[in-house]
Recover the amino acids of this structure.
């Protein structure tokens, strides 16, 4: 195959060789065309004049089926198969036995390789295996015959490209592209000595296991909670004997260790493309990650200390990958890359969880990313708004360099504010707390100097786990959070599933309007087993401490009472069994539906506190889905109707002596926070990144001055409220800009 020849002649030689070796009457190669058809490009045994004349639709015939499923197909009597598509020009009538395998490149089916025999027979597993191996080599050694992922014109010419993805972790990173996917040099495809090759493979496998153990060890990971679980599941996968055995088989069959891994990697990738089930996808993704990792070990990538993951030069590097498994991401994360960009990733995927835990600017979900980049390209990753600028021009580089300088300056200012009193210039204290949901998030408590966790989203643990977290898992997480809080208050919000937070087989039935549907407390009350288990976990975790629990999206007094009664029953249940229970228990409700604002009167003596979840509250108030940017951004937080409503709720709570606070993203933006403080709110819980900017605003605020001006502004009928607040802020020297 390595012989010099024109592609066409080479391919004909190849099919002849394969047919001869496999004792097949026919061997053909089909190529996937740009318009997604399968074109016959070489054949031994079919009529030669059918070459470049026979085209099959991508879902047509047996070849189409292989292209679609990316799986081999072996059939005893092809013409009787329901998918068989008869093409008279090929003269294939007399052939019965059929075997076809996909030709895979970068997880994409680029072609199909088939063999056929006159007799009715079923090809054996080892024959299928051999043909798959040949298909792989074919894709590598005759690349021009099979199209790979083409680079875009812009990439070839080095022109700038701006790409929009999703932010997985905020921050800004600038540097040069470093590509993640290992490439196998064609020279290393065949083993000179299978024994030596098997030895290399065994060594690499052993090293792989050790490296995962090291990842799990505290010195490297300091890993806790969900990301740790993810890596543990990954470790199990690495110990799967079927996987290792398949690798050994390849080597015994004459492939190099690299080629054997690569063969499996192609399969995993191709299957990944086809599978819809998120659980299976994640498994296949992790498998591919293992393949990649093993390849690196063989490449002698200094696996002892992870040097291969270190940036190569002093210039900051930005890692670009099609996908990254959780373990790879952790390695990279610890190695000092300035940012990470992933072609494929869901915000709820394992990689996204780890990315947020690591705090490295990360953007995901950019289709075709790899076709735009080359190694060493300059790149800017804006994790704040999910944007990536490839080969930026001088002006953009300068603009971002400024922005980066400002951001780091800003970080310094915020860090300096950390230990300053959280109060206004005229001495009015305001509690600033953080919203959290992962074990790792608790780190923000100390880094920001927040006064506690105003909202702990307990459902995250459920969403991140492969299985339902046991009571013990839950107790462990809650204990960890309480320990990290070290006496600072933590408001645990009970399971808030439903809406966009779905669990397979639990609440994933399709609904017309999920945000208004069977979710939050409604769902929890209907699933008392699950709900009570969580309550037990909360009570057990907080023995000998204070515990604050709040129920999400309460709509009526009745709902609150039912949930509270259940919690109290659980307290008694524990006491009967000799558990002490918390020192003090506070039971609150989240105000996320406007209706609940009018139910407060009825439960004033029963509720210990109320926390307004402005994210949901606003979507219900405005009837504008928070997940649909087209509408959610149309109705602003800082508007007269919202302010009037929040003023009313504040007044009601004050009159009824119900402590009230705000949680939700809005509380973390200085201008919104200023309005909330202006309305009288003194407790705000927000994403960790909001504490610095809001605290800076607060410390520049003279409430005795701002309060009356704001009250006046609210009286006016002019709709431009935001501008009005900005004007007052400017005239009173209140620092609002967070950049
Ligand atoms: C909210 O709705 O404001 C809130 C804090 O809860 P979540 O964002 O988790 O729905
Ligand atoms: Mg909510």
């Amino acid at each position: 195959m390595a012989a010099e020849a024109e592609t066409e002649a080479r391919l004909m030689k190849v099919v002849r060789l394969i047919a001869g070796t496999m004792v097949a009457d026919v061997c053909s190669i089909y190529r996937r065309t740009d318009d997604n058809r399968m074109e016959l490009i070489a054949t031994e045994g079919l009529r030669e004049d059918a070459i470049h004349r026979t085209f099959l639709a991508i879902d047509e015939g047996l070849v189409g089926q292989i292209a679609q499923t990316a799986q081999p197909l072996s059939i005893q009597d092809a013409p009787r198969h329901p998918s068989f598509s008869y093409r008279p020009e090929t003269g294939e009538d007399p052939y019965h036995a059929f075997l076809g395998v996909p030709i895979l490149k970068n997880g994409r089916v680029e072609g199909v390789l088939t063999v056929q025999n006159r007799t009715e027979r079923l090809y054996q597993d080892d024959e299928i295996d051999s043909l798959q191996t040949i298909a792989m080599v074919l894709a590598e050694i005759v690349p021009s015959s099979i199209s790979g992922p083409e680079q875009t014109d812009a990439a070839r010419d080095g022109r700038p490209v701006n790409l929009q993805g999703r932010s997985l972790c905020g921050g800004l990173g600038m540097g040069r592209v470093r590509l993640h996917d290992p490439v196998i040099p064609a020279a290393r495809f065949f083993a000179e000595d299978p024994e030596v090759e098997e030895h290399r493979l065994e060594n690499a496998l052993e090293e792989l296991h050790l490296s995962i153990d090291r990842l799990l060890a505290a010195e490297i990971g300091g890993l806790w909670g969900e990301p740790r679980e993810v890596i543990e599941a990954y470790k199990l996968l690495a110990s799967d004997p079927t996987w290792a055995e398949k690798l050994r088989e390849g080597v015994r069959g004459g492939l190099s260790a690299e080629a054997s891994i690569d063969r499996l990697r192609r399969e995993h990738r191709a299957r990944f493309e086809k599978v819809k089930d998120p659980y299976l996808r994640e498994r296949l993704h992790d498998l591919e990650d293992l393949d990649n990792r093993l390849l690196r070990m063989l490449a002698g990538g200094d696996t002892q200390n992870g040097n291969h993951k270190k940036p190569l030069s002093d210039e900051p590097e930005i890692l670009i990958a099609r996908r990254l498994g959780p373990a790879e991401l952790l390695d990279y994360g610890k190695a000092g890359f300035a940012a990470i960009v992933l072609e494929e990733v869901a915000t709820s995927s394992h990689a996204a969880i780890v990315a947020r835990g690591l705090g490295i600017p990360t953007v995901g979900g950019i289709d075709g990313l790899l076709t735009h980049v080359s190694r060493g390209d300059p790149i800017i990753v804006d994790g704040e708004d999910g944007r990536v600028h490839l080969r930026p021009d001088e002006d953009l580089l300068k603009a971002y360099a400024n922005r980066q300088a400002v951001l780091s300056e800003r970080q310094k200012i915020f860090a300096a504010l950390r230990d300053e009193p959280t109060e206004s210039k005229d001495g009015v204290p305001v509690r600033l707390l953080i919203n959290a949901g992962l074990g790792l998030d608790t780190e923000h408590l100390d880094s920001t100097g927040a006064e506690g966790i105003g909202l702990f989203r307990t459902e995250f643990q459920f969403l991140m786990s492969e299985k339902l977290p046991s009571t013990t898992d839950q107790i462990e997480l809650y204990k960890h959070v309480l320990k990290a809080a070290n006496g600072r208050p933590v408001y645990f919000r009970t399971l808030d599933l439903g809406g966009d937070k779905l669990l397979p087989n639990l609440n994933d039935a399709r609904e017309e309007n999920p945000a208004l549907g069977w979710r939050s407390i409604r769902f929890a009350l209907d699933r008392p087993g699950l709900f009570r288990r969580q309550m037990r976990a909360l009570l057990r975790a907080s023995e000998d401490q204070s515990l604050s629990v709040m129920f999400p999206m309460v709509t009526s007094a009745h709902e609150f009472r039912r949930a509270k009664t259940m919690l109290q029953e659980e307290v008694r249940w524990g006491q009967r069994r000799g558990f002490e229970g918390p020192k003090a228990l506070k039971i609150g409700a989240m105000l996320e539906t406007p209706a609940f604002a009018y139910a407060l009167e009825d439960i004033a003596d029963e509720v210990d506190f109320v926390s307004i979840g402005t994210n949901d509250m606003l979507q219900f108030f405005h009837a504008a889905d928070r997940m649909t940017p087209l509408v959610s951004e149309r109705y602003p937080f800082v508007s007269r109707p919202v302010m009037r409503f929040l003023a009313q709720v504040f007044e009601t709570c004050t009159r009824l002596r119900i402590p009230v606070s705000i949680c939700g993203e809005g509380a973390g933006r200085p201008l919104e926070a200023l309005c909330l403080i202006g309305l009288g709110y003194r407790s705000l819980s927000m994403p960790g990144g909001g504490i610095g900017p809001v605290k800076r605003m607060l410390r520049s605020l003279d409430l005795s001055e701002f309060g009356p001006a704001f009250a006046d502004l609210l009286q006016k009928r002019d709709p431009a409220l935001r501008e009005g607040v900005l004007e007052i802020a400017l005239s009173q020297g209140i620092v609002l800009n967070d950049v």
Q: What stands out?
A: The first helix runs from residue 7 to 21. The two ends are 59 Å apart (CA to CA).
